[in-house]
Amino acid sequence: MGDVVRLRKKHPCGGFDWEIVRLGGDIGLRCLTCDRRVILERPVLRRRMKQFVSRGEALSSEVERALYGLDDGAPPEGEAPGSGET
Ligand SMILES: [Zn+2]
Questions:
Q1: C-alpha–C-alpha distance, residues 43 and 35, integer Å
Q2: How does pLDDT run across 51-63, given as a tens digit for each residue?
Q3: What is the 3-state secondary structure (H, E, C) of the chain?
């Protein structure tokens, strides 16, 4: 897929840039500096992500959707469950 993200936290090898190698419930990343792979949960990656790199372009919609869950049943805004009245 070739999308690259930059994380806030430096990898022990000194690298910041990661290629997205797997999408799913968790996101697989490969460190571009040392070639090591890690798996991060989507919320964790979202928090750690500093910016998209991806050769100056936006991430592919496939990656964005996987990360931000645009179509995976986000709850409607405003309505907190359990706050209903009888
Ligand atoms: Zn590394």
A1: 23
A2: 666 655 667 777 7
A3: CCCEEEECCCCCCCCCEEEEEECCCEEEEEECCCCCEEEEEHHHHHHHEEEECHHHCCCCHHHHHHHHCCCCCCCCCCCCCCCCCC
CA of 30 to the centre of ligand 1 (A): 8
Number of domains in the chain: 1
In a domain, 45, yes or no: yes
Tell me the torsion sign for CA atoms 7, 11, 14, 17. Answer: negative
What gap in Å lies between CA 28 and CA 37, rounded to an integer? 7
Centre of ligand 1 to C-alpha 80, Å, is 41
Task: Tell me whether residue 19 is in a domain.
Answer: yes
| pLDDT tens, position by position, 32-49 | 999 999 999 988 888 888
Domain enclosing residue 45, as ranges: 4-67
